Amino acid sequence: MKYGHFDDSSREYVITNPKTPVKWVNYVGSMKFGGIVDHTGGSLLCKDDPALNRIVKYIPQLPASEFKGETLYLRLKEPAGYRIFSPYFVPTLDAYDRFECRVGLGYMRWITEFYGVRSEITVFVPRGASAALRQVRVSNLRSEPISLDAVPVVEYTHFDALKQFNNADWVPQTMQSRARRCASGELVLMQYAFMNKNRQVNYLTANVPVASFETCRKRFLGDNEYGTWQQPLALLSAQLGDYEARRGDNIGALLLELGQLGPGESREFVTQLGQAASEDAALEAAAEYRDGARVARAFAEQRAFFEDYLTKFQVHTPDPSFNSMVNVHNPRQCHTTKNWSRYLSLYQLGLGERGIGFRDSSQDALGVLDRQPDEAKALMRMLLSVQKRDGSAMHQFNPLSMVANEGDSRERDDRPRYYGDDHLWIVIAVSWYLKESGDYAFLQEEIPFYDKHKDGSAIERGTVLDHLERSLDFTRKDRGAHGLPLLGFADWNDTVNLPTGAESCFNANLYGLALKELIELYDHLGDQASVESYRVDYALMKKTFNDVAWDGAWFVRYFDADGSALGSRHNSEGQIWVNGQSWPVLSGFADSERARVALDSVERLLNTKHGIKLSSPGYKGYDPSKGGVTTYPPGAKENGGIFLHANPWVMIAETLLGNGDRAYQYYDQINPASKNDAIDAFQCEPYAYPQNILGDEHPEFGLARNSWLSGTAAWTYTAATKYILGIMPTHDGLRLAPCIPRRWGGFSVTRQYRGAEYRISVKNPSGVSSGVKELFVDGRLIEGNVIPIAPAGSLVEVELVLGQAISSARYFAASPSADPP
Ligand code: NOJ
Hints:
Strand content: 25-35%
Radius of gyration: 28 Å
Number of helices: 19
Largest sheet: 10 strands, antiparallel
Strand order of the largest sheet: 1-2-8-9-10-11-18-15-14-13
Bound molecules: 1-deoxynojirimycin
Structural class: alpha+beta
Oligomer: single chain
Shape: globular
């Protein structure tokens, strides 16, 4: 509880000490307009693309005490002169009497007290708007009157975020600001790069009179910038310089004279930082949120959106921290990863090196299927449009230009220029989307492949179903010496980059799962010829994999081009890899004996109190023949670190074997909420999953990094809802197959599915983990464990009693030893 606590009643996390080990952040808006707000008021905003249309300059590598992007100064007129401080603590670092930053759903809210002045500030982006609003209320807590000014400040960046850092002549020569008044008299500061003045105009305004303004950083800080953000020299004068910058480091600063506040008296104002297509459009947009009532309505709409988003799946179990993660924080993070892929965080800096990741976003889509199926579908459309005609996929793309590239595989001429796994993920995403939504018409929608004629037009289009078939086709043909799929530049593990010809067991199992999905789909569509043909492919890969990959107590992970195994007991480093064990269970390739032995090896050799490591032991030194994995010291990231994204796959595998206690132990040990009491070691936000935690070979074992944008969000949510709670959409209805800790007496869930509401109550009278003894739907005992699809708008009451399974074959439809359906 050192830095804060959960407030479940308001669905907020409350930071009460601003000196957190690293900045803790929240996301506002979406990539259409939005970004990151940190707990000390800094912001990083963009419109449509953080690399190509960035608005605010936020440099995460600067010390935590430094100004970043946006702040607010308050200025008290005292007998000895001005007292200047920020209600956000940074950048002035004054001693506070109260600090509260409430991390809400799509908003941040501060309540702070400094020098007898209480500030209550809420920042959010209204639904559909291209502006971030800050609603500010300041109150005088003293017993005498005070005289107060407020100065909101923004530091702009060049719209091309990387250029900002690599050209310190051209960039400042292009940056310009000007002040305009709207008809109603309020001042709007406009800022743009010269070439964008009729395209992308940033604006800063307030809904109260502006006494003076500044747009040049040098003048605001003063003394040739030997003035500081902690004490900007311009704030020592009564008024700002009213200077409209024609070049240089542009800022926006507005001096708002709030006047005298008697004891207990308050003042309110709203600032807006937005972007519009022209100065006139900016004036118009600025007018929309001048009215406090309109702002309040926009905030209510924003809250209603999340309320609706959350109510689509709510669970009540005996474990409050599970409830809080599944009901609030995990779905919020899934919403974030769906929006931002791996593009913009305090770790993925969105400077253009990445973009939307094909593999990443295909998985992120899984995390919002039950709450935002249409949004997931829109994302899948974009992804399918960067799939190539041969079935492989471009690794990443820029969402504004839709220009795609091959990612890091471009870095090495001696390695393949594609990833062996990307294209397979979309098969799973589309299939799960169909099972969720029943929207089979999507399969017939035509989407272009990425290959283009010289004029930029698509060479070929194909239906969504064609796209999926080509994904599988690519891998069927792209096989190596053992008959396993080739690695390409890398598979899910970006950092193992072996010489051309290497094979990947991960790709084999991902292919297996994708085949299973397509077999089920064709079965549902009644196309038995396709079912049979994909079954043959499945059986062949299953046999090949089992013939060559079993190493005695676990499966190997790769075969190098020369045929030697990686992830084998014969290796001294990288002996065992977790994905090598969980995925054969997910694909159904491992029989139950091998599955059990492999997962026991995971528990014995890879599990730690902070989570399951990706591999062990770590590589001890740089070895270019292995690739990026050896750039990390042992215990860090992919080199034997606790790479959280891979943990939920083990949870899922354990549930498929019916082991609810172990699955839950793995769930619980990475729950960020449980880190709240050991947060100085963990360091990252306790309300979002990080990507990685240092493993036990590292001296700083337990330290987390790369919070928020990680596949951990979607997959842990999937593990919790579809496998532990066991509520899995299928083509024929919701299948119930809970696999819970034996100590749970039961749980209840409200879930929407294809327009109907299901109220599910699970009872566990005999203290088991799994097995459906009885299933009642609207009071009627039904056979099996699939609840038939109910008409949209209906309410379905479901009661399930766990116990001796009525039909284990049907229950474990996805069991490891079962043949594909
Ligand atoms: C992070 C990447 O975003 C993800 O695509 C990849 O699977 C993991 N790193 C593991 O390398």
